[in-house]
Amino acid sequence: MATVPALRIQQLRKTYGNQVEALKGVSLDVAEGDFFALLGPNGAGKSTLIGIVSSLVNLSAGSVEIFGTDLRQQRDAAMRMIGLVPQEINFNLFEKPLDILVNYAGFYGVPRKVALERAEVELRRAHLWGKAQMTSRTLSGGMKRRLMIARAMMTRPRLLILDEPTAGVDIEIRRGMWDTLREINDAGTTIILTTHYLEEAEHLCRNLAIIDHGSIIAQGPMRTLLSRLDVQGFVLDVDGPLPATLPTIDGTTLLARDEDTLDIDMPREMDLNQVFTVLDAAGIRVRSMRTKSNRLEELFVRLVARPEQSA
Description:
Blueprint: E1 7-15, E2 21-30, E3 35-39, H1 46-53, E4 61-66, E5 69-70, H2 75-79, E6 82-85, H3 97-107, H4 112-125, H5 141-152, E7 159-163, H6 171-186, E8 190-194, H7 198-204, E9 207-212, E10 215-221, H8 222-226, E11 231-239, E12 253-258, E13 261-267, H9 272-281, E14 285-291, H10 295-304, H11 307-310
Parallel strand pairs: 3-8, 3-9, 6-7, 7-8
Antiparallel strand pairs: 1-2, 1-4, 4-5, 9-10, 11-13, 11-14, 12-13
Helix pairs in contact: 3-4, 3-5
InterPro entries: AAA+_ATPase (IPR003593), ABC_transporter-like_ATP-bd (IPR003439), ABC_transporter-like_CS (IPR017871), ABC_transporter_ATP-binding (IPR050763), P-loop_NTPase (IPR027417)
Domain ABC transporter: 7-238
Protein name: ABC transporter
């Protein structure tokens, strides 16, 4: 017997009062237990879709089911299965982290004794237990983000929706948050992530959908979508200054990042030795090379490129 998806969206449409069609018949399934990325440029429809799923925005047509529960017909039951971490910090900065978590759980009917026990668990997982009795406004930006995730987990949601959870935090803090999110997902919570850090999506997510102009333009397993790339990119570190004019290599794009580094995009089937031969003939000595780390960014840019950008 087939497992009911954590999220099923069918022919979802949203038209605002100014006749702007934000969603144009979006259909999407997210499997239970998945770590799923929802990507798209600004204005693509991500926020509208997340708003509808979390019951903050009314849909115009279509249907949304949370673990088989229809959002419109059984809103309260569906919402009890969802935890939402919005992009904006939206808790009382003059409250203590422990009180923020316990009071939030109370809104959903969690008994205070249980809420206190859960709050300790979640604050420890977020590495905030030592800050439990401090005023929240004294927390760093990264701590506030982790507190938002801890708060969402207080109701033990089966589906956790994260809207730009690491926006504005440095890379070290961001990677620490990745560990927390993996732990939550490994424990069985389905996660949907929206992010502009495509490296984040590539590291964390198994499946993804890319939305643009209100429509899904690509979806599927991360590995399958990345395999569609017919080019590979390398960064070349060179000895000595580069010549004023770089050599031309048919089928490749060769750019100077700075006087000691070259960027090259080339067809997957091309032999690297051919590239090195041309560079050597031009007096360019390659000291070392590495692959470009973010393949997802390359795929994303190709898929959502505007006509005016590619003209």
